[in-house]
Amino acid sequence: MYGLLRVALSVGVVYAASTLPVHADVFHYKDGSGKSYFTDTPLKGNRYKLQWQRESRKLVSKSNQAFIQDRSDKVITAKGRVISSKSTPLSGSASKRRADIEHLVTANARRYRLSPALLHAVIRAESAYNHRAVSHAGAQGLMQLMPATAARYGVRDSFDPADNIRGGSAYLRFLLDLFDQDVKLAVAGYNAGEGAVLKYGRSIPPYSETQAYVRKVLKFYGAERPTSFIMSAR
Questions:
Q1: Which of 127, 152, 175, 223 has a CA positioned 20 to 30 A from the CA of residue 45?
Q2: Which listed residue (126, 194, 209, 224) is catalytic?
Q3: Taking Cα atoms as reference points, which of 180, 111, 102, 194 lies closest to residue 152?
């Protein structure tokens, strides 16, 4: 009897394909949200759309390479991280700044039950990991907290990475709970305020800045998230 086992790509598509029979095919599907799935058996139903089908032996013929470029504009690294080729890579200095706060993102993601990928996406969109950033409207720090928001969540120094990320994470958790875990609405609320999202009937406000911001964060979020691999359990 066959069952579907979803496995996060902690070791990458190359390894997963190498565990399949020599002549097995690998199928790449996407669901309605754009999330990728890989399986050695066809998936049924309208939820999944086939992107490509390849022989597993061809996928592993260069298993020592660092990555595989598939046809969905994503690079799948050997460590399982998916990077959208449509998302501009971080500069060297930004990458270093990111590494410096990685432990803070991980800790606050755990504390506030958030996806680290979402936190990274918001921080990148807000400040490009610059803890001294100040917007024309007066938002400050890594997660660009307005003074009122900082006060609301007990942030004493918005330029302190630990204090800023804690406050921004708490606010993001509040928004996700308010909007029933809808990431798009939470992100819109982070930019325009929850009142604006409520004003327009729990939808993304028709502000060009907010709509562009939501698209940017979701692009960064998609680039951060690991894909999924589905294989039949025998």
A1: 223
A2: 126
A3: 194
